[in-house]
Write a structure and sequence with these properties.
single chain, mainly beta, 6-stranded antiparallel sheet, 5-stranded antiparallel sheet, 4 helices, 5% helix
Length: 480
């Protein structure tokens, strides 16, 4: 093991540590009763580095993707995990050691792999067009078999997606279309962006390009019935900086946060890049969006906002202020009637929180309920930005009331994924699925909650004999 990993919490400590084994378990032990109507698969993905990293500044975000599948049917939960066997994974597997630097940094990568595909497929999961993909925003979607998790490789969709693709595409619940975007599609650290639409059969029907105010790691975006919104924050990208031994990805507090607002549709159809309008505000950051919708001549969005980017340094490599990195639920409001560039921001919750999800039948429409992970109590300044959340929350935007479930001390819960009770169930009527790290036992559980009553605790717990390392996002595939 590289000696530097022994003091790197993202590689070596607790449940950040990689899982080196692939498992197949036919039936997990169940506590409680699985809802009889819950039938489908929960897929989760996160970093699990195959080998110790090459560089001293290894970051959790850059590890090899490992997919975890919980298949649920007839009261039984089976489990399977597999690495996404990307070209990077294959090259390093054959070499028996790490070859790529963190985030593919050319200054710390082995010369043998300069210019080769360093994709990790480690950030999010997508079920679309009856196909399963692991996503990571610096490369194309990586396809896997929905049952065996066998790797099928990066996909270009008939050559239309030829570089990057967001880890957070948005599916329109009415049209079945999938909206996606990419930052720096024209080369590393370029200030360009690309927006596209894919139909329900994975055929790309639109592609449009534009230039952003500056090169930024734009992790998420927003889609409403009538608009697409692109946040561009001061989380900057610079190849020149990286080649000087400074961070490739860094916070630049001298810049402002911009949001591009574009009408949906093509240039010939009254929408597209010709309608793009940039709003701006003081420097702030958003990794994840909960939802957005049109409200007459305004657009309202719910986001997880922090004052600086969590877990990332400034341009000189200096760590940021942990309290400023703490994200909270915030409402953004854009007034489209005038010609001003400002937009309103208002925090709605005082708890540090992340990983927002909704009942996705309401994507791009006004949602009453939102779900997220959070800390049960306000955090001390030194650990305010910790992503090791101990609680799940359900927020009612009509009443402003928050309900929570908090795990035992030391345990950590993943992003929740909502599953409706039935196709025509009211908003928020269904189950929340999340994976919990049991710190005292050094293993993980799948938790199933009634989404209408988090405070009652899990209605069922599927117990794993091993860990699921801390990860990012998940997706549900129904058997219906």
């Amino acid at each position: 093991m590289n000696p530097t990993t022994q003091t790197n919490p993202y590689f070596f400590t607790g449940n950040y540590a990689p899982l080196g084994e692939e498992h197949d378990i036919a039936a997990l032990d169940i506590e409680g009763t699985l809802p009889p109507g819950l039938s489908g698969s929960l897929y989760r993905v996160g970093p699990s580095p195959q080998y110790a990293p090459r560089d001293n500044d290894y970051h959790w975000f850059s590890g090899d993707g490992m997919v975890h599948a919980f298949h649920i049917d007839a009261g039984v939960v089976s489990y399977r995990n597999r690495w996404a066997r990307t070209p990077k994974w294959q090259l390093e597997h054959e070499a028996g050691r790490a070859l790529f630097g963190t985030f593919g940094n050319p200054a710390t990568s082995d010369p043998l792999v300069q210019g080769l595909n360093g994709g990790t497929a480690n950030t999010s999961m997508l079920w679309h067009g009856d196909r399963l993909f692991a996503l990571e925003e610096s490369h194309q979607p990586f396809e896997l078999d929905a049952h065996t998790l066998a790797s099928k490789g990066h996909q270009s969709f008939s050559g239309r997606v030829d570089s990057r693709c967001t880890a957070h595409p948005k599916a329109d619940p009415e049209t079945g279309e999938l909206h996606f975007f990419a930052y720096s599609p024209d080369g590393p650290c370029s200030p360009t962006m690309r927006y596209g639409v894919m139909d329900r059969h994975c055929e790309v029907t639109q592609l449009q390009s534009f230039t952003a105010p500056h090169a930024s790691m734009a992790h998420d975006f927003m889609v409403t019935r009538g608009h697409v919104l692109f946040p561009v924050t001061p989380l900057t990208l610079s190849m020149e900086r990286a080649m000087r031994g400074k961070p490739l990805l860094a916070w630049d507090a001298s810049l402002r946060t911009h949001v591009g607002v574009m009408r949906r549709g093509s240039d010939s159809g009254g929408g597209g890049t010709g309608t793009l309008r940039w709003f701006d505000t003081d420097a702030c950051h958003v990794f994840h969006v909960m939802n957005a919708w049109d409200d007459g001549d305004t657009i309202v969005a719910y986001v997880m906002q922090s004052e600086t980017a969590p877990g990332l340094p400034d341009a000189e490599g200096r760590p940021g202020d942990p309290a400023a990195m703490a994200a909270r639920l915030c409402r953004w409001t854009f007034d489209l009637r005038g010609d001003g560039t400002a937009f309103q921001r208002e925090y709605l919750d005082d708890l540090v929180a992340e990983f927002p999800r909704i009942d996705e039948r309401y994507t791009g429409r006004r949602n009453r309920y939102g779900f997220y992970t959070c800390h049960a109590t306000p955090r001390a300044r030194g650990d305010a930005e910790s992503v090791l959340y101990d609680s799940l929350a359900r927020f009612d935007f009509d009443t402003g009331k928050r309900e929570m479930h908090t795990l035992p001390p030391g345990d950590v819960v993943s992003e929740p994924v909502f599953v409706p009770r039935a196709a025509d169930a009211p908003e928020g009527d269904g189950w929340l699925l999340a994976v919990a790290w049991r710190a005292q036992e050094e293993r993980s559980d799948l938790l199933v909650f009634d989404a209408r009553d988090l405070e009652a605790g899990a209605v069922a717990v599927a117990r794993l004999p091993h860990r699921v390392p801390f990860g990012f996002h998940g997706s549900w595939r129904s058997n219906a």
